[in-house]
UniProtKB/TrEMBL annotation:
Protein name: GNAT family N-acetyltransferase
Domain N-acetyltransferase: 23-153
SUPFAM superfamilies hit by this protein: Acyl-CoA N-acyltransferases (Nat)
Top-rank lineage group of the source organism: Bacteria
């Protein structure tokens, strides 16, 4: 899985945040960290839960959420494993295919732009086509395994 580079000055205008079809996309609050980490571990893996906890330690937290009522449907992080990195991101299986992944991606990338970054790196991008479709992402040559080399699981 290669890393991707995203020029943040070329992002689509759509902010990603706000309420659409009853689902709110917004920045996470510190007291929600336990719920976010539990969600990441339940639906994905412990490594992603660890990354969520690191991103949540930012001020403001570097995590965006998709929430319907009191149910967490997905998340996206930045500045977790490295500064300037986007990810991880995930949407629970039942909530996929409804545009939440796109909204979380755009909300987080816009926040990175606001935080002063010119580019974002999508670290170890799994669904490369998903990213290419929704933001101006280009593959970084020779970026695998990149910063994750030798990682313990
Ligand atoms: C990737 C992920 C976050 C996308 O979330 P989602 O809410 O389903 O995404 P969206 O509904 O916004 O998808 C929008 C479009 O991208 C497409 N898409 C979604 N996942 C895709 C994938 N893995 N590969 C290619 N295209 C994909 C959808 O088909 C959809 O197309 P459409 O607009 O023509 O219907 C979600 O599939 C997920 O949690 N996957 C597992 C975790 C993961 O791989 N995370 C990324 C780690 S780097």
């Amino acid at each position: 899985m290669p890393d991707l580079l995203v020029p943040l000055y070329k992002l689509p205008q759509e902010p990603g945040t706000g309420v659409e079809n009853g689902v709110t996309v917004r920045r996470a609050l510190a007291p929600e960290m336990h719920a976010i980490c539990a969600f990441a571990q339940k639906h994905f893996n412990k490594g992603w839960a660890s990354e969520c906890s690191v991103a949540m330690a930012g001020r403001p937290p570097g995590v965006y959420l998709a929430v319907e009522g009191k149910t967490l449907l997905g998340f996206a992080c930045y500045d977790a494993t490295a500064r300037g990195f986007f990810g991880p991101t995930g949407v629970s299986k039942a909530a996929r295919g409804k545009g939440l992944g796109r909204r979380l991606l755009l909300a987080t990338l816009h926040a990175m732009r606001e935080a002063g970054y010119g580019y974002a790196v999508i670290g170890g991008a799994g669904p490369v086509d998903f990213y290419r479709r929704h933001c101006p992402a280009i593959e970084i040559p020779d970026s695998e395994p990149g910063i994750y080399e030798g990682m313990l699981r």
